[in-house]
Amino acid sequence: MRVTVPDTYHYDLAILVPDKNMEAAVKGILTRPQALGIDPIDFRVYIHIGRDPGCYRHGHEFLRPMAGSHRHALIMLDRMGCGQDAMERRDIENEIENNLVRSGWEDRAAAIVIDPELEAWVWSRSPAVAACLGWVSGSSEMRRWLAGKGLWAEHALKPNDPKLAVEQVMYHVRKRRSSAVYEQLGQKVSFQRCMDPAFQKFKKTLQEWFGR
Where are the domains of the chain? Predict the structure, then answer.
């Protein structure tokens, strides 16, 4: 159920992320509200100086002052590198969300922990992935190349190490890594083909808050 809130909020959504790559990806994704099944929203993305561990440990403190100016909030981070690699994704999310409740957000905030890292969202079956990464001969050839490098097991939905696979492809095609690549991926890769659990929660949460 969509929460009814007063009209005194300045922004619809505050999003706290650990780095520029995730900032770019989120901005790219949110340029396509219709594809997400939501209304256009006025959002702000903030980067925590402490990166993933900072988002995990202190994200609720960072967002506390914004509880009166933003309708909703998201804390997003990678499970790998947040300092709690042994914990399950959902357990990390629950801990962060409990902290957000105590920080004044009540039921207006959520945590999205990507397992293992942001690059897990890159590897959908969309042909746009290869194009955004600079691989001109298509997705099938790129997958065969990664398989030959031992980076993509047969029948697996995505590479064994999603981040390493992105790095190796871009190094091979001599494409410079930058946050702009992640924004382009967010703008062009089909959401319908991304079945990653963290992405599905991200999409569902936005639909509950801002659904058309």
Answer: 11-119+191-210, 123-186
